[in-house]
Write a structure and sequence with these properties.
This protein has 392 residues and is of the alpha/beta class. It has helices at residues 3-8, 49-62, 73-81, 98-108, 123-129, 152-161, 212-225, 231-242, 244-263, 282-288, 305-312, 344-349, 366-391; strands spanning 66-70, 89-93, 114-118, 134-140, 165-169, 187-191, 205-209, 268-272, 295-300, 319-320, 330-332, 357-360.
Length: 392
């Protein structure tokens, strides 16, 4: 059975009414038959039938034993970090999401957890960064926003040899394209706000554990700390997952065309997209993923924040906004938006230039999106030609 068919028919029909849509159990508590005797639920923080359906569904999609739904992507990351104790160390991808960087460096470092940032596209650098105290390797692949690709299988072997957990943030690829647990990872996290939800109408996070024992530890933390996803937002994520494979197919198709267009434009300095043969990790992306995703990043030849801002405020179909993965195309400037919490020198060293812009390719017609980019590029080229001429 094909993945799309299996997914659709994994979402249960309500046994009580026959409803084809999962019911929203909007309740905080459940009546018990006797003290400690119930129908599987006692209090909605500990478990809710709508959330349980989502958690089972995402575990199946990622090929894991236990799925857990959290109130945000950062809450999901926080739960994984709580597996560690003072004195432990994390080896983390250098081109990391700004929110994760802030959480690791400004929250967990003060609790005695050390973070070592490395270029994880080179497994040898991951190996060299591991110490006897390293307990967790943290990957994003593709990374946010320069779309670096790390070899999950190779790093999983390093993690196992050194008794480290390997966690992969699979937000950009989604399980429609990539299943890190099948490649050796122990944990997968998602900002379900993005492709899983798919409609820019919710905030949610997901953790999937490969084995039941690790899943039980994470389930304890979810309940003990209380960062749970509500029933209505759980239903919204289920609804988004129903069309995930179809949406991802279109996101990837349009992103490839747009990346190829940008690559040949003289105003563009560099295009970041794993689907381009020129991408340094193209072969690894082909090996471990079914597609290259819906995110395209690029830097302008005029490498200034002002140039990027001028471009980002000129597009019409690409809306300037945080987030990604929705049906409407978005543009963002990582240096002043998603990655502003990362010091400028560290950000630039990881490849996030001042002029770098990130595109989240939506479901609009690709020809219309290219016309929008052409208009913005023409405006940008004219503006900076005039500036250069005046300076001369």
């Amino acid at each position: 059975m094909q993945a799309t068919t299996q997914l659709i028919h994994s979402i249960p029909v309500d046994p009580l009414t026959g409803a084809v849509s999962v019911p929203i159990y909007q309740t905080s508590t459940f009546v018990q038959e006797a003290p400690g005797v119930n129908k599987g639920y006692d209090y909605a923080r500990s478990g809710n039938p709508t959330r349980a359906t989502l958690e089972s569904l995402i575990a199946q999609l990622e090929g894991g034993q236990v799925g857990l739904a959290f109130s945000s992507g950062l809450a999901a990351i926080d739960a994984v970090a709580k597996l560690l104790k003072s004195g432990d160390e994390i080896v983390a991808v250098d081109d990391i999401y700004g929110g994760a960087y802030r959480l690791f460096t400004q929250v967990y470092e003060q609790f005695g957890i050390k973070i070592n940032f490395v270029d994880t596209t080179d497994p040898a650098k991951v190996f060299e960064a591991i110490t006897p105290n390293t307990k967790l390797i943290w990957l994003e692949t593709p990374t946010n926003p320069t779309l670096k690709i790390s070899d999950i299988e190779a790093i999983a072997r390093i993690a196992k040899a050194n008794r480290c957990l390997l966690c992969v943030d699979n937000t950009f690829a989604s399980p429609a394209l990539q299943q890190p647990l099948s490649l050796g990872a122990d944990i997968v996290v998602h900002s379900a706000t993005k492709y899983l939800g798919g409609h820019s109408d919710l905030i949610a996070g997901i953790v999937v554990a490969k084995d039941a024992e690790l899943g039980a530890r994470l389930k304890f933390l979810q309940n003990a700390c209380g960062n749970v996803l509500g029933p209505f937002d759980s239903w919204l994520v289920i609804r988004g997952i129903e069309t995930l494979h179809l949406r991802i197919r279109q996101h990837c198709s349009s992103a490839q065309v747009i990346a190829e267009f940008l690559q040949q434009h003289p105003a563009i300095d560099q295009v970041f997209y794993p689907g381009l043969p020129s991408h340094p990790n193209h072969d690894i992306a082909r090996k471990q993923s079914k597609g290259f995703g819906g995110i395209v990043s690029f830097s302008l030849k005029e490498d200034t924040t002002e140039a990027a801002a001028a471009f980002a405020t000129t597009t019409q179909l690409f809306k300037l906004a945080e987030s990604l993965g929705g049906i409407k195309s978005l543009i963002s400037h990582p240096a002043t938006m998603t990655h502003k919490s990362i010091p400028a020198d560290r950000r630039r060293a990881a490849g996030v230039a001042d002029s770098l812009l990130r595109l989240s390719i939506g479901l609009e017609d690709a020809t219309d999106l290219i016309k929008d980019l052409e208009y913005a590029l023409d405006h940008y080229t004219t503006t900076y030609k005039n500036v250069a001429e005046k300076a001369a």
